[in-house]
Amino acid sequence: MVVPSWRPAAAGAAALAVAALLAPPAHARTPAPPPSACGAPVNRQLGDVAVTMQLCPDWAPAGRIPVHSGTRPAGAKVVGWIDPAGDGWYECGMRGDPYRGIPGAVSRWWAAAMADNGRWGYVSQLYLQGGREGDPEQSLRRC
């Protein structure tokens, strides 16, 4: 599991301790490029429309990811939810207003997505595992 860099230090420290126990000796390690959080873009047929989307690992501390009607959370309504079990499909990313829906974290980056109820909207990229607080998910294509 990828732990976002802005998550509580205790979670990061625990993950590092486990990784240190399971890691091979230093002389056996070879540097690897950082993994791409989101998969390659693919065309998905959604009703009568083909949409280019990417499968991205996501997570949610409350067990569900809110999908907003816009990228301005002050005026946007939650139009649906995404179950974070498994990876989710996201269309593209864009900059919007700051989102503070996760205590202690903020990001201006959003991802276009379809909620589990079939409604389209926007998800804060704080819910994508590959990004860092305040930065866009680099492997998600831009809108």
TrEMBL record:
It comes from the Bacteria. The keyword Signal applies. This is Secreted protein. Keywords: Signal. Residues 1-28 form the signal peptide.
